[in-house]
Design brief:
With 543 residues, this protein is α+β, with helices and mostly antiparallel strands. It has 18 helices and 23 strands. Strand 16, helix 14 and strand 17 form a beta-alpha-beta unit.
């Protein structure tokens, strides 16, 4: 009963704030749509977009990225790197504090609550990183963090947590030791898995840390005040936060809205201050007062479902890629041009562009003779004489996919039939993620600027392996080892792994596409991290 009263009270207070902010035209409240409810507010296990948006705005790591992608101080005011690149020494702000709500405080026993130290300490980062590698956690840790000494052995359960190369020298000095130098390590520390965690509070939640606003404490610019499932989340400015830049919004409202058309209307009407947009959505906006931030983070192409009985045969896939002739396709107005590979332009290794290093991948040549031979071998392998293949695509690409199907029919003949199913964006994304397709012309978007993290999604056990492709060679190239490779070796391995996907006809890249964050008239100071997928609201203003 008490919880019901609290929930109703929170809802009433939130609605009061909503109406008040709408009526007084305050520039201190910001409104932004998200697609779905968050899964967890625990930084060490947050992987979905909504959860990351909360984490990146309500927590602060040792370092963070500014609007240009430059690494700037977070809780650490400065750091030193040893000449051999193996030891990082971070000096923490002494005024960095945890925010704990009264409800959260009730989880602590009387003695712990009375003596709780609200300062964010080096021990909080030690505990957070140990949780990230704890095999019992099941955390999806950024692969770049595995350069920390002993991290992989700990992750495999072969060494105890206290052997991790992370040490609190005192309350405000943290030492991190690496196995091998890694020029991308500071970027890795901006990730949610590297956020701090207070041990005694985590233990007090009894396994429910991060499941609701009452079971988390925060050290970032905002804290999560309330969460109305299926409706919205409310972030309040954290008055305990003492970062280098002031927190300008007093409140951020995250509305759960998967209706793409109403999102655009609410952005142009000024209901939303900012909104994520695809190129097609941006093209529908005629309001000249809307400004945009762009991120070259997506690749459109043909995905082949390797768990499908027909598509599991390499020769069938090869026949299709050899006869697609995608270089002759017209480039849609909402795409930048032909894709240079699976990896989008935004992906980096350290501060180096992966695409600049790798150039264009080699695609299968358009060869009708080779395609027919591959098809014949595939039919023999599967002991079939004809096949019907379903193809799903976004409804806006229907005519383009029809051109490719015509090429396939012309080359492969009447023994291969195709059923084309145009879908809306949400349905297409769901079908691809759940592997409910034979062939999908779909968009693959980077959720991190790290090429290692991006290509790591497609390993045999990768969380984003939408192709269900299993390859020991690919896993070896993208595998985590006890000794971290040099930056040049990482680039080389990633280039070879990307090419392997093309050689095995797992993905056929066609177009590259930008994504955008649209800003309403007068809105400024909002930018995005995680390859443009996670907005940062700290400096956001509205005239």
């Amino acid at each position: 009963m008490v919880k019901k009263i609290i929930a109703v009270t929170l809802a009433i207070m939130t609605l009061t704030l909503l109406f008040a902010s709408c009526s007084d035209g305050s520039d201190e409240d910001l409104y932004y749509p998200i697609y779905a409810d968050p899964v967890s507010f625990d930084p060490q296990i947050a992987t979905d977009n909504a959860s990351k948006i909360v984490v990146f705005n309500c927590f602060e790591g040792l370092v963070k990225s500014d609007s240009t992608g430059k690494i700037i101080p977070g809780v650490a005011t400065s750091w030193e790197i040893s000449s051999d690149g193996l030891t990082y020494l971070f000096h923490l702000r002494t005024d960095s504090k945890w925010y704990m709500s009264d409800y959260a405080k009730e989880l602590l026993d009387e003695e712990t609550a009375k003596n709780f130290n609200y300062s964010v300490t080096a021990d909080d980062f030690v505990y957070g990183l140990r949780r990230a590698f704890n095999p019992e956690m099941g955390a999806v840790t950024d692969s770049r963090l595995f350069s920390i000494k002993n991290s992989y052995s700990i992750y495999k359960g072969e060494m105890p947590l206290d052997e991790l190369g992370v040490t609190a020298l005192n309350s405000s000095t943290l030492k991190i030791e690496l196995s091998e130098p890694n020029n991308d390590f500071l970027n890795a520390l901006t990730q949610s898995a590297a956020m701090p965690c207070r041990e005694e509070f985590f233990e007090a939640t009894k396994g429910r840390y991060g499941l609701d606003p009452e079971k988390v404490i925060y050290n970032g610019p905002f804290y999560l005040y309330s969460w109305s499932t299926g409706s919205h989340l409310t972030l309040y400015r954290n008055e305990n936060y003492k970062g280098a830049s002031p927190v300008k919004p007093s409140t951020v409202f995250l509305y759960i809205n998967s209706d793409l058309s109403t999102r655009i209307d609410k952005l142009t009407d000024g209901v939303y201050d900012a909104c994520p947009l695809s190129v097609r959505q941006k093209s529908e906006i005629t309001d000249k007062d809307i400004s945009y931030i762009s991120y070259a983070g997506s690749t459109w192409g043909f995905c082949f479902n390797c768990s499908d009985e027909i598509m599991s045969d390499y020769n069938i896939r090869s026949a299709l890629t050899q006869s697609a002739n995608v270089s002759s396709l017209p480039i849609p107005s909402y795409c930048e041009g032909y894709a240079k590979g699976l990896v989008p332009e935004i992906c980096l290794v350290g501060n180096k562009s992966f695409r600049t290093f790798a150039g264009n991948i080699r695609l299968p040549e358009n060869d009708s003779v080779a395609a027919k031979a591959s098809l014949s071998q595939g039919f023999e392998n599967l002991d079939i004489k004809s096949v019907t293949i379903s193809v799903i695509c976004h409804e806006n690409f229907e005519n383009i996919v029809k051109l490719v199907i015509q090429n396939w029919q012309k080359t492969l003949g009447v023994h291969v039939n195709f059923i084309l199913e145009p879908l809306d964006e949400i349905t297409l994304e769901r079908r691809v993620k759940s592997k409910e397709y034979d062939i999908a012309f779909a968009k693959i978007t980077a959720e991190s600027e790290s090429v290692v993290s991006f290509l790591g999604m497609f390993t045999s056990e990768g969380t984003g392996n939408i192709f269900d492709f299993k390859s020991k060679k690919y896993d070896s190239l993208m595998g985590i080892t006890d000794e971290t490779l040099s930056q040049s070796e990482i680039l080389s391995n990633c280039a070879e792994a990307e090419q392997h996907l093309a050689d095995m006809s797992v993905f056929l890249p066609v177009f590259s596409e930008e994504s955008f964050i649209g800003l309403a008239d007068g809105v400024d100071g909002i930018y995005a991290v995680e390859a443009g997928t996670v907005p940062v609201f700290c400096g956001g203003t509205r005239k």
